[in-house]
């Protein structure tokens, strides 16, 4: 067979026409969302005031393994997809490893990450439902950018509650969102009750993702024909992100690539859940025995040191109770540079799969992540996002293990995005001022203390 | 025939194996470089102390229409090429034009532009010649980034003299260059004679591209086994950039696309010269009658208001005399946001083709450029570089003209790069503080006054 090219691009015709719904193949389902007032499972009706109707339907769909991607979304996907599956020839050479390394690169669109895959779908359904505005939150800014792009394309106004400290540290992210027409409001703000309350208690606060979520949800609830959209964690977001896994699967089949190890970074879990979907689906069905590894920051060790428990998704405790791996909604991650992975909880689907032993998890320290990122950039040319570099760090470790053992394994990882907006982090790494932080058990206990009492009742 | 896809990617096998050497097909050649001391044409030997030997040979090659791309460079090209030829379906829809719009997008690599095409070639030849270090200058930083990436790949040390004001305004560009291992020196610096002289005369100066070129050349001349590399203007740079035009030609042939209008932005002229190479070659041979348009900033109107004259390429007047369109090496362009187009001169090949009437030139104002850039980003998703937006501005104008006339023309433009490092410019546009500047005739006269006396002798 001919040599595998550096970059495998599927043609438009080969693109997946369906999303992969993991819940239809899981042997046990994640625990449903619990309404904090009634302590009963949430119904679709409970969620309709907050989320778009069709997305709620997807959230509750546990039967259809495949869900058709609407034509309009496919058309939008074609403006930036398929994304390339890249053979890391240069990295392999630099590492002098017998392993074959591949990465699915989601950073070729302007949002710089995979986030656009779900943004496109959510905005389309909002437009279809006749909504006239949307709200969301953004931390590092990738989700806000992605949603702003999709809103520009489908022509619907957007308010983005951006963690205040991020909006100050990343004025350029704010500028991109505004170029695409999104309105950026630094959070906490005086535009919401929860924002005013938090400001009154902590006038100098730089905000948090949990707080920004609370503000965006409040506005959606109080504004006519407006809904809130979330870029990670939820099942329908993982569903949309399965386009990553499906494209990867099709490319692997076309070129007869059989990954022994599949690696992704985890924050809220959406890119990871999307990448592994068809592969872990086959694993559940006993069709493969792939090693799957989730990599998280040592500073926010949700899977490796968190509890599998009921918790709120936000600081303001406005969400339903979600059974997931969590550090507690009161856990405040140290300000490391992987903003996209700094979340106290984890996708319920990813949490359940982990709980049931379908994959391993590792926590990695920031400075090691940047060692790997620099090595990668110098060989493969791409400047990776710190978040994505968690996955490539472990891919490099596994490739070096192959070098020792002489094994010719096939390693595939998800490179979720580029680091063009993370250069302050690269600067601190380059000039040697970057520090690592691992929370002590006492730090973690403080976070766990914020878990809702309701735990004991289940 | 099936619908043309959004993005046309050639396969690795379809990639051009040869560069296109315009000088072999031009009816009249550009005037050779003139040695400022002897006032005779420069010989290859004159240039060897400054430039890599093989590059000098390419600079003097007027006979071979095609020059083989070495295998090692092709391998490197494959890490980020072929670049996509994109059908701008969304922009067409937004403009409601009967025209078909295509763009060749060179911004998918981390340097964010086409610059890497020549950087790859120049660094390879330097390595092959056994050189142990390289120097260069960078203004906006794209060339410095590209060269730093190529130097990391081929493993050769690099010093980048970066216009001081740019290194201060764009610390993140500096961080990228350093991540790839390049050493950044703000210019003017005390590391060179010319730098110390300029600093003594103007202690507070923010530097200029011409001054940075002088410093980098001085270091190359004084350091053993070191050479200087330049990212634009020179004939061998245009040769390497012909990969853009060749890929475009092959993709057009494959999909039966026949551009009526071909548009590119011009600064030093390398991307424009590379894009148009095979097309203007055919035009010279009478095989097509394509309209070709070069677009430059109204603030630095080299083609539209400059003189076709002998001039130095740098402020320090260290280069040979080059016959080109120029505003005079003493012309100081206003600080607009298209740093990559702020050069007093123009590629001798591009200058000669313009002089001989093979294409038109237009000068556009900055605020209009950003109107077009914003419209483009909201429809096509890509955030364009201000430089590239000059080309897309005119593409939009031509498409709107088609809308009026009802003509279904095919418009193809070069989108040279992304604007991720130009967000200060987008911010000033978004908040309404962006201003336009058009030099007065008196401003231009001051620049022309710096032209060397030698003019009259030719």
Automatic annotation (TrEMBL), chains A, B:
SUPFAM superfamilies per the UniProt record, alphabetical: Tryptophan synthase beta subunit-like PLP-dependent enzymes
Species this protein is from: Desulfosporosinus youngiae DSM 17734
Known EC number: 4.2.1.20
Protein name: tryptophan synthase
Enzyme class: lyase
Lineage: superkingdom: Bacteria
Protein's pathway: Amino-acid biosynthesis; L-tryptophan biosynthesis; L-tryptophan from chorismate: step 5/5
GO CC annotation: cytoplasm
Gene Ontology molecular function: L-serine hydro-lyase (adding indole, L-tryptophan-forming) activity; pyridoxal phosphate binding; tryptophan synthase activity
InterPro entries: Trp_synth_b-like, Trp_synth_beta/beta-like, TrpB-like_PALP, TrpB-like_PALP_sf
Catalytic activity: (1S,2R)-1-C-(indol-3-yl)glycerol 3-phosphate + L-serine = D-glyceraldehyde 3-phosphate + L-tryptophan + H2O
Keywords: Amino-acid biosynthesis, Aromatic amino acid biosynthesis, Lyase, Pyridoxal phosphate, Tryptophan biosynthesis
One Pfam family of this chain: PALP
Cofactor: pyridoxal 5'-phosphate
């Amino acid at each position: 067979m001919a040599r595998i090219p550096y970059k495998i691009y599927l043609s438009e015709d080969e693109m997946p026409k369906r999303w992969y719904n993991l819940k239809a193949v899981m042997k046990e389902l994640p625990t449903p969302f619990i309404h904090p007032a009634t302590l009963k499972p949430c119904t679709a009706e409970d969620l309709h005031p907050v989320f778009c109707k069709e997305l709620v339907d997807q959230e509750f769909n546990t039967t259809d393994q495949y869900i058709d991607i609407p034509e309009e979304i496919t058309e939008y996907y074609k403006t930036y997809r398929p994304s390339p599956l890249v053979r890391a020839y240069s990295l392999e050479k630099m590492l002098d490893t017998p392993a074959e390394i591949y990465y699915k690169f989601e950073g070729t669109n302007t949002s710089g990450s995979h986030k656009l895959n779900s943004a496109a779908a959510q905005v389309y359904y909002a437009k279809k439902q006749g909504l006239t505005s949307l709200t969301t939150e953004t931390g590092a800014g990738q989700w806000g950018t992605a949603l702003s792009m999709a809103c520009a394309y489908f022509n619907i106004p957007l308010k983005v509650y951006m963690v205040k400290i991020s909006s100050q540290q990343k004025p350029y992210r704010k500028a991109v969102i505004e170029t695409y027409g999104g309105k950026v409001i630094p959070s906490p703000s005086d535009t919401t009750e929860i924002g005013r309350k938090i400001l009154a208690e902590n006038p100098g606060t730089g905000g948090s993702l949990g707080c920004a979520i609370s503000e965006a949800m409040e506005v959606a609830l109080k504004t006519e024909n407006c809904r809130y959209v979330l870029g990670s964690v939820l099942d329908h977001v993982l569903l949309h992100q399965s386009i990553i896994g499906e494209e990867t699967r099709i490319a692997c089949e076309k070129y007869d690539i059989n990954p022994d190890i599949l690696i992704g970074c985890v924050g809220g879990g959406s890119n990871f859940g999307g990448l592994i979907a068809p592969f872990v689906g086959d694993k559940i069905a006993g069709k493969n025995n792939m090693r799957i590894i989730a990599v998280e920051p040592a500073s926010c060790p949700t899977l490796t040191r968190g509890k599998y428990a009921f918790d709120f998704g936000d600081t303001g405790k406005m969400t339903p109770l979600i059974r997931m791996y969590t550090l507690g909604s009161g856990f405040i991650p140290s300000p490391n540079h992987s903003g996209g992975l700094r979340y106290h909880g984890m996708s319920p689907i990813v949490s359940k799969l982990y709980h049931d032993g379908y994959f391993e998890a590792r926590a990695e320290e920031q400075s090691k992540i940047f060692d790997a990122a620099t090595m990668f950039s110098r060989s493969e040319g791409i400047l990776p996002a710190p978040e994505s570099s968690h996955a490539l760090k472990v891919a490099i470790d596994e490739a070096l293990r192959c070098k020792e053992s002489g094994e010719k394994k096939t390693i595939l990882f998800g490179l979720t995005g580029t680091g063009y907006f993370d250069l302050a982090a690269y600067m601190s790494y380059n000039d040697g001022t970057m520090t690592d932080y691992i929370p002590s058990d006492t730090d973690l206990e403080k976070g766990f203390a914020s878990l809702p009492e309701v735990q004991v009742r289940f």
